[in-house]
Amino acid sequence: MSPSRRLELVKPASPLRRDIALAEAQKMNGEAEKLLSIDPQQARKLARSALQFSAHHGVLETQPQSRFIEGTAISLATDFGLAAEVLQTAAIEADALGQTELANRCRNGIATMYERTGEYGKACEMLHSCLSLSLAVADIKGQCRALTNLGNLHARMEDFERAVALLEEAAEVARRVDDSLLAITVLANLAEALVGSGRYKEGLAIGLACQRDALAGGYRLQWGFIGAIVVAALIGEGDLNEASRVLLGVRQTAEDLGERDLLCDALLKQAEIAQREGSLVDLDYALSRALALAESLGIRQFELRAHQLSARARASQGDYRAAFEHQSRELAITNELKEQIIGRKVQVLAVELSVAQHQRRADEEKQRSEELVELNQKLTETLAKAEHYASHDSLTALLNRRKFLALTEEALAKAAAAGDILGLAFVDLDGFKQINDDLGHDVGDSLLVEVARRLKHAVRGCDLVARAGGDEFMVLLRELKTSTEIGNAVERIGSVFDSAFVLGGASIMAGGSVGHAIYPFDGETVTALRIAADRAMYAQKRTRRLALRPPAA
Asked: Which of 70, 248, 423, 540 could join 486 via S-S bond, C-beta 3.0 to 4.6 A?
């Protein structure tokens, strides 16, 4: 093969069209995430390939998801330090791209890494931060994960009551999420906490249901871990035959997937069953493998269980020296774990106390804020009412004289600038004193209210109607171009007295005199227009009186 041909073969493929490359990178991430529950090593390889692909084709927005999958796969291989580094990088990238939910998911994972390395204070602080953020952005899955991880944190400290409460809350949230794997994970952790607290029947029922769901969903890794929980519940219930049957599948899964911590747990459970059944050969085989595996993994809880079972086994066989050695190791690890638990509880208590104080301050601030908002609203309403009372007539709710004249001044300035004309009409009821004297002031007030209502309906929305005082009303006719328009408007105003007023069951005919002035023809100031309109109104009133006066004898 020629050198040029070799170069051609290793030359990178040219970048794909962006939308095609983006879809392909997302597809690779989706397949890699599915592999996490089946084959974590392959999931990591595919995630690395997705990273290279996205870098080459310029679809960097898919990289945080790839790194998250890679970090999760590394954590399943128990390299917690490296997993935390990868997840931290993924969280930073996700934040920069505005992928808030993914960033929150990464930090949930980092908190789990802190917990695995004994940094319970950091884990607790980060989980509470994740929970707060999830609630703030309505990230239900993030809320579910944070509650679950907090529950597991308390379970590791053997605070099972608190763990169960948190996990039950997480399970309630999980019901609102369309994510079968997340729901299975939450319920499996709840089952484990119930078994840890000695509530075997409840834990067994939930564990069996989770196992069925995991099998149906093809989540083999989850099926194995849930199987270990089911075995623990069955041992607690004393059903050793069924526990042995389920355990075979758990061991096979652990060996097939290379899950050494699951295998160690399964071997310890096998040893416990063998010890209860008195099967010494199975006991020695399981214990020797479990102890070696526990020590290589460095998981102290597994080492403790291995030494506990070994001490009992050697004592039952009469090998008291070996029993004493295992018992000594058991005691040393027990004291170490007790110190760890105490230290971790102190860390978590300090964080949760701080969170509680912060929450209390936040609640107090919220309450003060709500009180201020309510007070401000009442003040605004009070000021609005005061402004209304200051500018409106209390009986008719029309503008009062002072406000009307101020608005008329503004309207004159606008009309002068726009070249419009304005109409100012004065309305005065005829014989109002007689109505008050004959029918009473209540009827007189009702008449004024009804006249005000009719006047409002007789004019346009841009016009202003006010009660000038007593039985007098004023109307400002705005946005007009011709005097004819004003004449038509004045006729409509006069027509409010054409029909009877029905007041208190009685029908009353009340008349009214209307006079008007036109800006700028009858005056260019408010005072001049008022005088002209007032004269015109009284002129009409005198004309009405003359018309009603009986002829001379």
From this structure: 423
Q: Are 179 and 221 in contact (CB under 8 A)?
A: no
Q: Is the dihedral of CA 541, 547, 552, 553 positive or negative?
A: negative
Chain centroid to CA 190: 25
Complete DSSP assignment for 201-228: HHHHHHHHHHHHHHHHHT-HHHHHHHHH
Of 77-81, 106-110, 146-150, which range is least confident? Answer: 77-81
Tell me the average pLDDT across 467-476: 92
Q: What is the pLDDT of residue 531?
A: 92
What's the CATH number where 517 sits? 3.30.70.270
Q: Which tops the pLDDT comparison, 449 or 6? A: 449
Task: Judge contact between 156 and 169, C-beta under 8 A.
Answer: no
Q: Which residues contact 254 (CB under 8 A, 6 or more apart)?
A: 224, 260, 262, 263, 266
Q: Please state the rounded mean pLDDT for residues 479-490.
A: 84
**Distance, CA of 72 to CA of 86 (rounded, Å):** 9
User: Any residues with CB less than 8 A from the CB of 344 and at least 6 apart, and which?
Assistant: 118, 120, 121, 156, 157
State how far the Cα of 125 lies from the Cα of 358, in Å rounded to an integer: 12
**Residue pLDDT, tens place only, 262-312:** 999 999 999 889 888 888 778 888 888 888 888 888 888 888 888 888 888
Burial class (CB in 10 A: 0-12, 13-18, 19+), 223: buried
The b/e string for 386-408 (b: 16+ C-beta within 10 A; e otherwise) is eeeeeebbeebebbbeebbbebb
Pair of tokens at residue 458:
């007789």
**Contact indicator for 25, 50 with CB cutoff of 8 Å:** yes
Please state whether the predicted TM-score (pTM) of the whole model is above 0.90.
no
Q: Model confidence over 394-420: pLDDT tens digits?
A: 899 899 999 999 999 999 998 888 888
Structure tokens at 448: 């004024």
How many folded domains does the chain comprise? 1
In single-letter form, the type of residue at position 460 comes to R
Q: Say yes or no to pLDDT of 8 above 60.
A: no
Residue 527 lies in a domain: yes
Cβ–Cβ < 8 Å for 533, 475: no
Residue 368, helix vs strand vs coil: helix
Mean pLDDT of 44-57: 92
DSSP state of 392: B
CB 47 within 8 A of CB 83: no
304 lies in a domain? Answer: no
In a domain, 528, yes or no: yes
In a domain, 152, yes or no: no
Residue 7 has pLDDT above 70, yes or no: no
- Dihedral over alpha carbons 374, 379, 384, 386 (to 10 degrees): 150
What pLDDT was estimated at residue 359?
64
**pLDDT-based confidence at 357, cuts 50/70/90?**
low
Tokens of 409: 């001044």
Torsion sign, CA atoms 292, 296, 302, 303:
positive
Whole-Å CA distances, 495 to 137, 223, 491: 61, 88, 6
- Identify the pLDDT of residue 14: 56
Structure tokens at 318: 């009469």
